[in-house]
Amino acid sequence: MCGRYVRRTDKQKIAEWFKAKNDTANLPMPDADYNIAPTTHQPIIRQSKETNEREMVLARWGLVPFFTKELSDIKGLTTINARSETIATAKTWREPMKKRRCIIPASAFYEWPKEGKPPKQPYAIEVSSGNLFAFAGLWDAWKDKDGHWLQSFAIVTTDANELMSRIHPRMPVILHARDYDRWLDREETERLPLDLLKPYESEEMEMYEANPKVGNFRNNGPEMLQKALDAAESGTLPI
Question: Where are the bilayer-spanning segments (predicted)?
Answer without folding.
Answer: none
